[in-house]
């Protein structure tokens, strides 16, 4: 199976933006919007990578940082979609 990442190149660049330190506020906010609006269309691998990177970024950011709640919402939304898809596959 070939994953269609060409269609999701912009979203993949946003997810990779979670690796950079210091985090860019615009990237995090745009990724949060994408996860909320396009979660059903995103490939499994991209959701999984977004979940992992958001968890790592969240652990690197202090809790009083304004980006912490946004990273928590990205993590929660991506893990929720992964769990929903895995329930439907059985």
Beta-strand content bin: under 5%
Low-confidence stretches: none
Q: Shape, please?
A: globular
Radius of gyration: 13 Å
Order of helices and strands: HHHH
Largest sheet features: none
Distance between the termini: 19 Å
Strand-pairing-aware structural class = mainly alpha
Q: Quick check: average pLDDT?
A: 88
Binned, the helix content reads 55-70%
Number of strands: 0
Individual helix count:
4
Describe this structure in words.
With 90 residues, the chain is mostly helical. It has a domain at 29-88. It is 68% helix and 0% strand. It contains four helices and no strands. The protein has helices at residues 9-16, 25-38, 44-60, 67-88. Helix 2 (25-38) packs parallel to helix 4 (67-88). The radius of gyration is 13 Å and the shape is globular.
Q: Would you spell out the secondary-structure blueprint of this structure?
A:
Layout: H1 9-16, H2 25-38, H3 44-60, H4 67-88
